[in-house]
Amino acid sequence: MKYQDEYRNRELVQGLAAHLENLVAGYAGTMTFMEVCGTHTMSIYQYGLRGLLPAQVRLISGPGCPVCVTPNSYLDKAIACCRIPGVVVATFGDMLRVPGTSSSLMEERAKGADVRIVYSPLDAVKLAATNPQLKVVFLGVGFETTAPTIAGSILAARQQGLGNFFVLAAHKTMPVPMAALASDPELAISGFICPAHVSTIIGADAYQPLARDYQRPCVITGFEPADVLQGVAMLAAQVVAGESRVEIQYSRAVKPQGNPKARAILDEVFAPCDAEWRGLGMIPGSGLAIREEFASFDAERMLPLTPELSREPTGCRCGDVLKGKITPFDCPLFEQTCTPEAPVGACMVSTEGTCAAAYKYGR
Amino acid sequence: MCLGVPMQVVSVDGTDAVAEIDGVRRDASLMLLDEEVKVGDYVIVHAGFAISKLDEAEALETLAIMRDIFDPEDMA
Amino acid sequence: MNDDLILLGHGSGGVLSHKLLSDLIIPALSGTPLSGQDDAAVLNIDAGRIAFTTDSYVVDPIFFPGGNIGSLAVNGTVNDLAMVGATPLYVSCGLIIEEGFSRKELSAIVTSMRQAADLAGVRIVTGDTKVVPRGKADRIFINTAGIGAFVTGQPLSGANAKLGDKVIVSGTIGDHGIAVMAAREGLSLATEIQSDCAALNGLVNEMLAMAGDSLRVLRDPTRGGVATTIKEIAVQSAVTITLDEAALPVDPAVRGVCSILGLDPLYVANEGKLLAVVAPAAAEALLERMRQHPLGKNSAIIGEVATAGVGKVQMKTAVGGVRSVEMLAGEQLPRIC
């Protein structure tokens, strides 16, 4: 397929690996790069890219899987939604297995709740339009890539005059927690592999403070294996040269200014708010809430939710994994009580989660 | 996060398009795009929305840089 | 009154049951008016050793491109028998039908069961039909059991893989699972992908005739896909198997759906494919023979038994990396973000 196969070419990948090896040959220390996006994490595991990296280069996985950073309290609300008679919860497939405090959507479905997997939030709008007797609640999770699609769906529902389409919103934004991680003295991050598709929306400027104020090189990198190796090589070159800039490796899809129209639609429907991140805690200004004008589409405002008292799981070190402080193998629960079949923390739940990827591909 | 795939646009009707990858077709909304999208263009589709139009010149440029990098001395 | 509906009374054992059996099920399945009237089928089998298997089918949707729950129920059981090296002979048919199900659809299902049985050369010799109240089953469930005989040769087992053996897959992977998933509402994907649902005993016969004892293991990678089945073989045989990602045959459209939904074709179900572990000296010739067969034309050598011990599977990725392959955990869900 065009725009995929070219960047999965074996010779190209091997060549880039050799280039990277040469680039860091004279470098004495270790460079630690954090990929903040779960799809990068998946790509690195799936193609076995770690084995192609020189010894001086270490990759760690950050908080870039929306399912992983969604706290129990959100899941408990989603579960409360699907327990209301006449409510259908529509969601991306990833959310089904995520444990809340004492249940999960999959468990609720087994007990009779109507939980449906959709590919697009527009499918949920269609579901609401064709079933006026039901209340359809879409679970709005995701970063700046996904938030505009939810905003667009709310606009579509308003245009169609639907009174039975709601969103339970827990969107998060990316650069804010990256700054929090960059300023954490316990974490020695040499640079960021910046997310590919988030950046199609927010553009390159959003990372300027990281490069300028925190002296962390940033490279917006595509998801194909050759993209990842080239992105890492661009980061390594900056480190070797002692520079700190924002560069775009994934220039076929990401423009410096991003996608202004998608951002405008996002801003029309959502306003920044404080948000709780699993493992990272409350980060001011890192979330998106549905604006007052669109309150009639907000599940939290419109539905009588009575979630249980939320607790985060004990012993789970998802937070440290998300921060890149430890690898999954360092967590005492990993492979013991926490497995993809019976996940404790959300990093094991999503196939993109650091722990699930490590379990599946990394041993 | 943010799984998106490059798909080729096969029909356009206002902001509604149909896009294809490897013979698989799916509706894709163009409402998030500023640029004009024509049949034959490639877009990144995420959750049923085109979020970015792919730039062929940039794609070829990236490939050229990748190839140039490792040609002579690196592989020696 | 709508005479297309299956009613609770059709499972009561009384007159309605008899009418459903004699009007619809028996004519379709056996074609002989007398069969199915006694409490058990009486069979003659000239073999000292038989294979016996059972499987239940609950697929949703029940009609999908390339087959339906009926053809799947026959082929699945035929294949389970073929994978141990037995010649499939007889199949049973247990139907659990939800009240209100359509007679027309039931007729289509049992007709395709008969067609699948004829194609595979097996007979459906006994069965049972129950009707449960609405909501107690999802439209229709089918259980089939099957008996096969060992005419010649020894039973095959997943524990027989040996160092140096080659691993062959009989065609493109993931077709069934993706055809079924794409047909489900909610995802709205338009594809031409057909399920690979087929009986493999004909192909297996040819493979056994040619390779004999060199054929060490046969398995059909159904739920859990190729990854899970290969891992099972590695564990059972206590060997490490290495797979070559570049050699894996994947239909482009299956790859496309997998890209869109974030799935890995290695974990997607197949219903008409087999994995063979074969001695290295016999591998190339067997591969050529498999490619002559209509159900094996895309066969490929995808890996080998690299080391004795441990029960691991490793994949050489298409770009030259290495990753380990584990069993599927839970169900594979479409992901997006």
Question: What can you tell me about this protein's structure?
Answer:
The complex is a heterotrimer of chains A (363), B (76) and C (337). By secondary structure, chain A is an alpha/beta fold. Chain A is built from 16 helices and twelve strands. Chain A starts with 9 loop residues before the first helix and ends with a helix. Chain B is 20% helix and 41% strand. Chain B has a five-stranded antiparallel beta sheet with strand order 3-2-1-4-5, with no helix packed on it. Chain B is elongated. The mean pLDDT of chain B is 90. Chain C is α+β, with helices and mostly antiparallel strands. Chain C is built from eight helices and 13 strands. The model of chain C has no long low-confidence stretch (mean pLDDT 92). Classes of the chains: A alpha/beta (363), B alpha+beta (76), C alpha+beta (337). Chains in contact: A-B, A-C, B-C. Chains A and B meet through helix 1, helix 6, helix 7, helix 9 and helix 11 of A and strand 1, strand 3, strand 4, strand 5 and helix 1 of B. Chain A: It holds the Pfam family HypD. Chain A: It comes from Geoanaerobacter pelophilus.
Q: Features of this protein?
A:
heterotrimer; A: 363 residues; alpha/beta; 5-stranded parallel β-sheet; 4-stranded parallel β-sheet; 38% helix; 17% strand; globular; C: 337 residues; alpha+beta; 7-stranded mixed β-sheet; 4-stranded mixed β-sheet; 8 helices; 31% helix
What's the short version?
The complex is a heterotrimer of chains A (363), B (76) and C (337). Chain B has one helix and five strands, in the order βββββα.
Percent strand of chain A equals: 15-25%
Radius of gyration of chain C: 21 Å
Biggest chain pair interface: A-B, 56 and 41 residues
Supply the number of helical segments of chain C.
8
Give me the count of strands of chain C.
Answer: 13
Uncertain segments of chain C: none
How would you sum up the global shape of chain A? globular
User: If strands are numbered along the chain, what order do they take across the biggest sheet of chain C?
Assistant: 8-10-7-11-9-12-13
Produce the secondary structure layout.
The complex is a heterotrimer of chains A (363), B (76) and C (337).
Chain A lengths: L9 H14 L7 E5 L2 H9 L10 E5 L4 H4 L2 H11 L4 E5 L13 H6 L3 E4 L3 H10 L4 E6 L6 H13 L5 E5 L1 E2 L2 H8 L8 E4 L1 H7 L5 H6 L4 E3 L4 H17 L4 E3 L11 H10 E8 L3 E10 L8 H4 L15 H6 L22 H4 L4 H8 L2
Parallel strand pairs in A: 1-2, 1-8, 3-4, 3-5, 5-6, 8-9, 9-10
Antiparallel strand pairs in A: 7-12, 11-12
Helix pairs in contact in A: 1-11, 2-16, 6-7, 7-12
Chain B lengths: L4 E9 L2 E6 L2 E6 L12 E5 L2 E5 L2 H15 L6
Antiparallel strand pairs in B: 1-2, 1-4, 2-3, 4-5
Chain C lengths: L14 H15 L20 E8 L5 E2 L2 E2 H14 L4 E12 L4 H18 L2 E10 L7 E10 L16 E4 L5 H9 L17 H11 L3 E5 L5 H13 L1 E6 L7 H10 L13 E4 L1 H13 L7 E9 L3 E5 L5 E3 L13
Parallel strand pairs in C: 4-5, 9-12
Antiparallel strand pairs in C: 1-6, 2-3, 4-6, 7-10, 7-11, 8-10, 9-11, 12-13
Helix pairs in contact in C: 1-3, 2-3, 5-8
